[in-house]
Amino acid sequence: MDDIIKELKDMRYLKWTQSRKSSGTAGSFLKSYDDSGKIKKYYKLSDYDPIKGIVGHECINEIIVQRLLRLLSIDHLEYTLIHALITIDGKEYETFLCESEDFKKRDEQKISLEDFYLMEREEENPYEFCRRMGWEKYICEMLLIDYLVLNRDRHGANIEVLRNIKEKTRRLAPLFDHGLSLVCRCQKREELEDFDIMADRKVQSFIGTNSALTNIKMIPREYLRSLPKINETDFDGLFEGLDDVMEKEYITKIRAMIWERWCSLDRI
User: Which single residue of 90, 128, 161, 204 could bond 116 by disulfide (Cβ 3.0 to 4.6 Å)?
Assistant: First the structure.
């Protein structure tokens, strides 16, 4: 469990700022950073409501998806889930938050894939553009994981290009930001029970369509055939140490969701 710190840490020194909530529903996601050390660290919270407090579990989703990415050997931003005491608008909260480090190398600048595409594109759609840039494997991995966890928020700024102007290099940043996935909209038990784990719900996807099922059909068959053989027990590690962090009903639903979607790849 190198990605969970359960001992309560006093992080009331962090200052939180609001970020746009892509779905357009009530609530917001708060972010912060700490640049007092040698390595700049970034922090984010689950869904926050000024009245109800921190009501989501997006930070826990990041850890579950991170472990799935590790299982599939897909490059990604590393998150740590931290049990923390924080302050928002003068009020204290005990919660779990996500910590990550800057993925830019020295002299690299970042730009969203959407902006980079608009600057450099020819007569081609975003998928064709990424193929020309040599990024097809990355895109296949991204569309795969976004289908398995039903990521609703892969807009053009959630994929970043890292450029070194001096060395004339450019690469895609490790996959990041998977919180709006799985059963993230289920805050009540009834919503969780009614949630169809195989439903093709509307998603934001800069590369492809608003259907995760349609998007995964864009992936070349040979890539899907090359995926590792995984048994249901291989998913045990995705939930290690989360029994006292997330309710059992949610873990059971999420586990079934990922497994059923993985099995469905053979039928697609």
Answer: 161
Q: At a CB cut-off of 8 Å and minimum separation 6, what does 191 contact?
A: 185
Instruction: State phi, psi for 259 to the nearest 5 degrees.
Output: -65, -45
Please state the pTM of the whole predicted model.
0.94
Strand 80-88 relative to strand 91-101: parallel, antiparallel, unpaired?
A: antiparallel
| CA distance linking residue 154 with residue 145, whole number of Å | 11
Q: Which tens digits make up the pLDDT trace of 176-194?
A: 999 999 999 898 899 999 9
Q: Contact at 8 Å (CB) between 178 and 62? A: yes
Count structural domains, the chain: 2
Give which of 69, 96, 28, 143 is closest to 244, Cα–Cα.
96
74, 101, 128: which is the final residue of a domain? 101
Q: Amino acid identity, residue 240?
A: E
